[in-house]
Specification:
Elements (H helix, E strand, L loop, with lengths): L2 H23 L4 H22 L7 H26 L5 H23 L1 H36 L13 H22 L4 H12 L4 E5 L6 H10 L1 H6 L4 E5 L6 H13 L23 E8 L2 H7 L6 E7 L9 E4 L5 H13 L10 H10 L4 H11 L4 H12 L8 H14 L3 H9 L9 E2 H11 L4 H13 L4 E4 L13 E4 L2 H11 L9 E7 L5 H5 L9 E6 L17 E6 L3 E3 L12 E6 L5 E4 L12 E5 L1 E3 L1 H4 L8 E5 L2 E2 L9 H4 L5 E5 L19 E5 L19 E3 L21 E3 L21 E3 L21 E4 L1 H10 L7 E4 L12
Parallel strand pairs: 1-4, 1-5, 2-3, 3-4, 9-10, 10-11, 11-13, 12-14, 13-15, 14-16, 15-17, 16-18, 17-19, 19-20, 20-21, 21-22, 22-23, 23-24, 24-25
Antiparallel strand pairs: 6-8, 7-8
């Protein structure tokens, strides 16, 4: 393709701007200029289509495109002369007007003649290529279907009383990953090719735009995984989710660190301009996903030579973006293929099924991928009468209008209406967490057990059902493979459209009468809607509040007499707990999550002392001083601390039994500041699960550890300074699981562990100091599984003769730092 071809679009754009000035400056040229503007507006999209098609032109097309390029160049030179001429030189303006008419006629002839033939030829080629692609896709789908047909999801027997749900969830996630690889290809190849050509061109800021659920994020991630793109940018690609309520300073810090290849404490307006003088050695790519605001976008764009920005948004930003690809909704053939894949597990309509009925339902989805997937999944394995009812309900929805989001929520609601009341309530609870954040499974299960009177197993079954209907996505940690894994290792993600749906369905009543009350991220207090109704109590059972830094004076006096779950999300290093907590007499679960980059100081924790019904606490990225922080919480059953700083100088002064006499579950992950677990924990005889993971400061466990007679699960993995397990382990007769993996300083497994007669699993991978096994281990008749390194595996395999049913698994080293990206 000639060089002029690549600049045809830019020339036309510049000519368009100049002609607007001409219409204001020279009245005699106005009619011709306006006609020429109209012609260029018709021509620009077509030129861009040819430019980014990625198809090499033959000689005939090349010659014709050269001619129109020269015509545009002539028009450009003429526009410059008109701009520089005096508005009172009537004779010269008249000459220019005649010349412009000739240029307009030449462009019009090209638009009405050769260009039409080019379009017809392109349509013919595209239909042929698409037919071939779908033939290959159907063949791959059939092979995949045959392979999946032999797989079965099952559970374990009596020994694995909790394993069935986790095994089913893991297998479902593996199957979904295979499905997604196929679905990504449907209708995206053209978009991929166009965006790649934009990235490889001179554009610095490129956009992917489309309505919610149209596959923008999926397309962007596929671009990042493309081999050509990764090679072009030398794998230097940063993917950031911005969301509706972004922490702009944190995002700017990540981009600054990416540009400078070093962590920065901040990136103020005074520092930022220096990046304009930088230039990268190799091209780099920054992807900003789910952008909602122009001011936010402007703060996140760094115009560094060599750095390209890909903006993914429902909104167009013509003043910022150099070029934009608008995601097209799926055509009928692609939509039917995607719908059938989700509803039937194949890419075509199955024999014997009502084809018209399927096409009527697909037509109501209007080619929106998310709607096709969710509705297709909700109709899977249902009767034909059920399908007809769904079609009739879809037919009553409002047609597409300017308010795409409302229309989409109405359609998405169909999938929720057919859920049972309990499952529907659990789905609605998912709307109380920030956009595009992983929701820890432990938080959800704790919340559901308190709100909906279900146990943990039923909670996981509901999660699997919601996942099967594409209403959420389960995200697994590399370690999350068996029934004893911590719930922290599995999380839930949800598309923002589905989150909007949950919030929309929860917000139909007046604010004081809603059962669920959510406040999106704000920096300055609570919404005006709340302020106007503070004279009456809020009757919500679950309340979610997302703010920045909050002081005592920032909170309103609000009454929540029926609240059972309170979720406090914030972005700050200093946070004052709302005083109204003191009067939430029915509160059963409190979730406190800090989304800033630094650990936050929490004030007013003493307010929790009046919560006599509180059963569950979840603290994330906060600083805790146990002695001065808590009053006794006599009914508290579960404490989870993630990324917290525990300020405890003298553990002997802390009486955990006095503070939490009924505690059954204590979990600490990635916490700092605690070198020894307080000995008073050994007096909490109700404790059943103790999980201390990724705590680099922990050096030892209490000497009286053997007094925890009812302990069933002990996890101390990834504690590098822990050298030995405490004495008295033989007294833990109900202990079922021990995890000491990645404790690199642990010297041995104590002989007393042989007295743990209920022990079923030992995880000791990546413990290089352990060379031998105690002889007493041969008496562990209940032991069913051991995960270890290859060096010590032969010792265990020798014991397989004495321990029937024992399975020895040699583990591969796994270093997963995904949590750092949160």
């Amino acid at each position: 393709m000639a060089v002029t071809d690549f600049f045809a679009g830019e020339i036309a754009t510049e000519l368009l701007k100049m002609l607007i000035n001409i219409t204001r400056k020279a009245c005699l040229c106005k009619p011709s200029a306006e006609q020429l503007i109209l012609s260029i507006q018709q021509l620009l999209p077509i030129i861009n289509e040819i430019k980014y098609s990625g198809v090499e032109l033959n000689v005939t097309r090349q010659t014709q495109l050269d001619k129109i390029s020269r015509a545009l160049q002539d028009g450009h030179e003429l526009a410059v002369k008109v701009v520089n001429s005096s508005r009172w030189n009537m004779y010269k303006n008249l000459q220019y007007s005649r010349k412009m008419e000739k240029v307009e006629k030449k462009i019009s002839r090209f638009v009405q003649g050769p260009l039409q033939a080019h379009v017809l030829a392109d349509v013919h080629h595209m239909r042929f290529e698409t037919a071939e692609r779908f033939d290959r896709l159907e063949g791959s789908a059939r092979r995949l279907e045959q392979g999946l047909g032999s797989m079965k999801i099952g559970g374990s027997g009596g020994d694995g009383r909790q394993s069935w749900w986790i095994e089913e969830a893991m297998k479902k996630m593996d199957e979904d990953e295979v499905y997604e690889d196929n679905l990504i290809k449907v209708g995206m190849e053209l978009g991929k090719r166009k965006i790649k050509n934009m990235l490889f061109d001179d554009f610095g800021i490129i956009g992917i735009s489309g309505i919610g659920g149209s596959g923008k994020t999926t397309l962007a991630r596929e671009i990042c995984r493309d081999d050509e793109v990764k090679s072009y940018f030398s794998n230097k690609i940063l993917f950031l989710t911005v969301s509706q309520s972004p922490n702009v300073e944190q995002l700017r810090q990540k981009i600054c660190g990416f540009l400078s290849e070093s962590k920065l404490d901040g990136c103020s307006d005074m520092v930022r301009p220096q990046y304009n003088h930088w230039s990268t050695v190799t091209p780099i790519l920054v992807v900003l996903d789910d952008v909602w605001s122009l001011p936010v976008l402007q703060q996140l764009i760094f115009k560094v030579p060599g750095c390209k920005t890909l903006v993914v948004s429902r909104i167009k930003f013509p003043t910022v973006l150099n070029a934009t690809y608008e995601v097209e909704l799926l055509r009928e053939e692609d939509a039917v293929s995607l719908f059938c894949h989700t509803a039937f597990g194949r890419t075509s309509i199955p024999p014997g099924f009502d084809e018209n009925l399927i096409k009527q339902i697909v037509e109501k989805c209007k080619g929106l991928p998310l709607a096709l997937k969710v509705i297709g999944a909700s109709l899977r394995d249902q009767s034909e009468m059920y399908w007809k009812g769904a079609r009739n309900r879809l037919s009553r929805a409002q047609p597409i209008c300017e308010s795409h989001e409302t229309e989409l929520l109405n359609r998405m609601k169909l999938s929720i209406d057919y859920l049972s009341d309990k499952v529907k309530n659990c789905f609605l609870d998912l709307g109380f967490f920030p956009e595009d954040k992983k929701i820890p499974l432990d938080v959800l299960i704790n919340m559901w057990t308190e709100l909906h009177d279900i146990d943990e197993e039923e909670g996981f079954a509901i999660l699997v059902e919601l996942s099967n209907k594409n209403l959420l996505t389960l995200v697994k940690d590399s370690r999350a493979r068996d029934m004893y894994r911590s719930y922290c290792e599995i999380s839930v993600c949800q598309h923002d459209v589905l989150r909007d749906l949950a919030i929309h369905m929860s917000s139909l009543e007046r604010v004081n009468h809603r059962k669920r009350l959510v406040m999106a991220r704000r920096e300055d207090g609570v919404p005006k809607e709340w302020e106007r109704d503070t004279d009456q109590p809020f009757l919500a059972r679950i309340v979610s509040i997302h703010t920045g830094e909050m002081r005592e004076m920032d909170w309103l006096k609000i009454e929540f007499p029926k609240a059972e779950v309170l979720i406090l999300n914030f972005d700050s290093t200093d946070y004052f707990l709302p005083p109204f907590i003191e009067n939430m007499s029915k509160l059963r679960a409190l979730v406190l999550i800090n989304y800033s980059t630094k650990i936050a100081e929490i004030h007013n924790l003493l307010v929790l002392g009046n919560l006599t019904n509180l059963r569950s606490l979840w603290f994330e990225k906060v600083s805790i001083l146990p002695k001065k922080t808590f009053l006794p919480l006599t009914n508290l059953l579960k404490i989870s601390l993630l990324l917290c700083k525990i300020n405890m100088k003298d553990e002997s002064e802390l009486d955990l039994f006095h503070l939490f006499p009924r505690l059954t579950d204590l979990a600490m992950d990635h916490c700092i500041g605690m070198t020894i677990l307080p000995s008073s924990i050994c007096r909490v005889k109700t404790l059943k699960s103790l999980s201390i993971t990724n705590c680099e400061s922990l050096e030892e466990l209490p000497l009286d550890f053997g007094k925890l007679l009812f302990l069933r699960i002990l996890r101390v993995y990834a504690c590098p300074k822990l050298k030995m397990l405490p004495f008295g382990m033989k007294n833990l007769i109900w202990l079922e699981h021990i995890d000491v993996s990645q404790c690199v300083s642990l010297q041995c497994l104590d002989e007393e562990i042989g007295g743990c007669l209920s022990l079923k699993e030992i995880d000791m991978r990546e413990c290089p100091q352990i060379k031998n096994l105690p002889k007493s281990f041969s008496g562990l008749r209940s032991l069913r599984r051991v995960i270890c390194d290859e060096e010590v595996s032969w010792h265990w395999k020798e014991m397989e003769k004495e321990l029937p049913g024992l399975c020895v698994q040699v583990a591969e080293q796994s270093f997963d730092l995904d949590w750092l990206r949160e």
